[in-house]
Amino acid sequence: MNVAAPTSGRVTCRARALVAALSLLFAALACAQPQPSLTPAEQRAAAVTQVVLGILSYARWPVEPAQLRLCLVGPTEYADDLIKGTTQSTGRPVLVQRLLAGDSRIATACDAVYLGQLNQDERSQLFSAIGGHPVLTISEAGDPCTVGSVFCLRVSDQQVAFDVNLDSVARSGVRIHPSVLQLSRRRAVQP
After folding, report:
1. Are 151 and 112 in contact (CB under 8 A)?
2. Signal peptide span per the entry (predicted)?
3. Tens digits of per-residue pLDDT, 31-80?
């Protein structure tokens, strides 16, 4: 994608800030930085939290929520840090709650859904429920990112990366900054 060069100093400053912020996100994606006091599972959970918060910070909803509502659906392996709740780098609080896949509130009580292990019927029911609502979906379950999820995490001991389903981005009603989409493409072609 081509982006026009900014014409004012104010926009240039914003562009530099965006590049700096994206650099931080890219660094978090590059590898899970080991912390001596954390187990490998805790390190992966912390790295997943960084990546998820990074993704959420570059998403824009039609009406920006004052408090971002992240719902965890299904059994999750890496959501321990997310459950604690957090604040985005912008200062916006992130409220995290667990819901069942069949909960009728998902479409209206969640701005983003972090999907754990769900069977095919549960996934179908969930994606039917959020259809037509601006809900961003992030899947941790290692699926090939072809069925409904906008972002699909790839978690290993060395790094946390993600794939993007562009079809799902278009249907989600949530805008994603193009640099995040390009990052996914670059990472997909790197060995």
Report:
1. no
2. 1-32
3. 444 456 888 888 888 999 999 998 999 999 999 999 999 999 999 999 88
Structure confidence by residue, pLDDT tens digits, 76-122: 999 888 888 788 878 889 999 999 989 999 999 999 999 999 998 99
Q: What local confidence, expressed as pLDDT, does residue 161 receive?
A: 87
- Domain segments of the chain as ranges: 9-189
Q: pLDDT higher for 127 or 90?
A: 127
Closest CA to 179 of 27, 14, 59, 22: 22
How far is Cα 142 from Cα 133, in angstroms, rounded to an integer?
24
Contact 71, 99 (CB under 8 A): yes
What is the Cα gyration radius of the chain?
16
Do residues 145 and 163 lie in contact, with contact meaning Cβ atoms separated by under 8 Å?
yes
Fold classified for 9-189: Rossmann fold (3.40.50)
CA–CA gap between residue 47 and residue 41 (Å, rounded):
10
Read off the tokens for 68.
């971002």
Assess contact for 161 and 36: CB atoms under 8 A: no
